[in-house]
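Lay summary

Proteins are chains of building blocks that fold into shapes. Our project writes down both the chain and a compact code for its shape. Here are two examples, one after the other.
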Amino acid sequence: TADPLFCGCGDIMSGDDNNEDQRLKDLVCEMCALMYEKGWATGTGGGFSVRSGEKVYVAPSGVQKERIKPNEVYILDNDAQVVVDANEASSRPLKVSECTPLFFNAYTIANAQACLHSHSQNAVMATMLCGNEFRITNMEMIKGIRKGQSTESFGFYDTLVVPIIENTAREAELKDRMAAAMKAYPDACAVLVRRHGVYIWGPTWEKTKTMAECYDYLFEMYVKMKSIGMDPTMPPPNESDSANENENECKKAKSSISKAISSTK
């Protein structure tokens, strides 16, 4: 059966323009509710934004994310100017998300179409165990992460790298640090914020959601591996041994072939 949370959102970019605003507002609300269920948006934290053409849809700030209504979603233009002020349609005072400048980093630098901000404990714990980068390799879920703006994805044997920036007193003040990290790590689709959370973006809302789930899985695995003394940045010893054995076998085979050719001359 269809997931009731996302009924009607699969064709979110199709249909007539008159209904697009409503569909995208619904999507923002549904994504925020999902984030709350996953523990990524507790205590009014976290947020979600999606872009379509000249419009950007953003959840309000400082409200319980699982209870946001469609008429409380802001609409901005591509210059981050408010087009539809949700505060005018709501029965409670609202303000546009504190995450907005960070969402626009994803739109302007990475040409993303959606951006998610998670306060996941897995992400926060990972930042407390790492230096300036999060690194992990030889994990199946790495394959769910795209390489920057390309259409390629990382492979199982690749090392996934996510930059980590230091937190600031105000969310909006992270804008320049996040932008610098994005430019320094063009293959990344995420930026971790130490003791705070993570920003994740993608070419569609579906891929952004998928990558957010993969990233969170990998952050959790990193923390668990560290807790039992395993190094998430290194391949398993048997993988290295197997690779060395294969290399040695290839060298032996080449040597045998060379000797066989020499003996026939």
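And here is the second example, written the same way.
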Amino acid sequence: LKMAAVGAGGDFDHSVEATSGMAVHIVPALSDNYTYLLVCNKTKMAAVIDPVEPAKLIAKAEAVGARITTILTTHNHWDHAGGNKKMAKLIDGLVIYGGRGDNAEAVTHEVGEGDVIEVGALKVSVIETPCHTKGHVCYHVNDTAVFTGDTLFVAGCGNFNTGSPKQMLDAFTKLGALPVHTLLYVGHEYTKSNLAYARYVEPTNKTIKAKQIWAEAALAAGRYTVPTTVGEEALTSPFFRAVTGESGVLNHCSTDDRVAAMKFAREEKSAGDWRSKV
């Protein structure tokens, strides 16, 4: 992949274009969660993604003149679905979506691969990404942005709690097939740690180094490191690059098998021994 805007000193700041018909408001929650208010610019109808702290999202909606009609739940873990029931009590008629078979809190409509949800004039397509939980889904909006929950993080991926390395590889393959400019809004602020590990895996990768410097500056200034893009992940994420068979990652993982590389990278990242070597 060639991305002229990305490289040493490149600009890693992104936002939704006004022409996309939508606005995305980032609302941090708990210690490191990202929740989101997705607004249809035409109708001012809105969806919230993983509203673990409902009051924050309701306040944001009021501030921007939006009306929340929908909850989009990526998966059943309490720090993502744990606000659904409370929010349903606060807003009458709320429609709550979650992945098929995931049994997330207070879900009224379970959805699967290719299902389309309407939020005002916005079209939200469901991408099944089981692994972190058995019914985890991502939400792809207007061919512009994806809310990835705990499947994909900036330069990282979720734990394989109920699934396998092959399932996570399949999930990343789906997300990687989207256009390089697609915006990815992730579930947690793990960027600093993830890029440190990515740098350990590929110490000569200049794009990783540049993004690491950018992320540390952004966080120090109180800014967010989301969204990322499909193109940037293809250049910086060891998990994404394991899936695409990048030689630097496969060599680090001592395998030519992409599934084995995904497994190795996830286990090595979690074990943490690499931290003493960077």
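What can we say about the second shape? The chain has ten helices and 14 strands.
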